[in-house]
From TrEMBL:
Superkingdom, taxonomy of origin: Bacteria
Protein name: Thioredoxin domain-containing protein
InterPro entries, alphabetized: AhpC/TSA, Thioredoxin-like_sf, Thioredoxin_domain
Coiled-coil region(s): none
SUPFAM superfamilies given in the database record: Thioredoxin-like
The Thioredoxin domain, residue ranges: 9-165
A matching Pfam family: AhpC-TSA
Length: 188
């Protein structure tokens, strides 16, 4: 068993800056909120081979108006090729940009769990397991959710409701999960 663990992105730290390729052919920074939004929801999905990813992305599209109303833009990205994404778009009904070509070094930089395909019929490349990042106006990670399988993802209603609450300036809600292990007192 390997002891080479992927480092994880931590809340309140800067989100890594790198470019991705969009389905339409343009390149852009992965975190570059559009449409007058100042926060970005970045969804990393497994790829076209994953029916649960297709379902999640299509469902997320229904929450775009609520997210835009609180200033949160959406982008999704996978390690698929341009051709795989083009085929996948036939099953997608999304209203946000989809990027492709996430590299293994980028997956590591994001702290994603990475899987090897079970067979060539599944896909032809190693792929990331689901990850979700909410990046605030300062470019820092506000919310992070990582999974090592496609069956564990955040509930979208709860996520949008929580982000709505966080974005309300009257709530003064801090970034959570920032205490370091050495800062925590161990109970005996």
């Amino acid at each position: 068993m390997s002891t080479d663990y992927t480092p994880k992105c931590h809340p309140s730290t800067p989100f890594p800056k790198f470019h991705v390729s969009l389905a339409e052919g343009q390149n852009r920074l992965l975190v570059a909120p559009q449409e007058d939004c100042d926060w970005q929801l970045v969804v990393v999905y497994r790829g076209a081979h994953c029916p649960l990813c297709t379902k999640f992305l299509n469902r997320l599209a229904g929450f775009k108006p609520q997210l835009k109303a609180i200033g949160v833009d959406i982008i999704a990205v996978s390690a698929d090729s341009a051709e795989q994404l083009a085929r996948h778009q036939e099953k997608l009904s999304v209203n946000f940009p989809i990027a492709y070509g996430l590299s293994k070094p980028q997956m590591h930089q994001l702290g994603l769990y990475i899987s090897i395909p079970r067979s060539p019929q599944e896909t032809d490349h190693d792929f990331p397991e689901p990850g979700l990042f909410v990046v605030n106006e300062a470019g820092n990670i506000q919310v992070v959710d990582l999974s090592n399988n496609p069956f564990s993802r955040p509930d979208l209603e709860a996520l949008v409701s929580g982000l709505t609450w966080i974005r309300d300036p009257d709530n003064h809600y801090p970034i959570r999960g920032t205490a370091h292990y050495n800062d925590c007192a161990l109970e005996s």
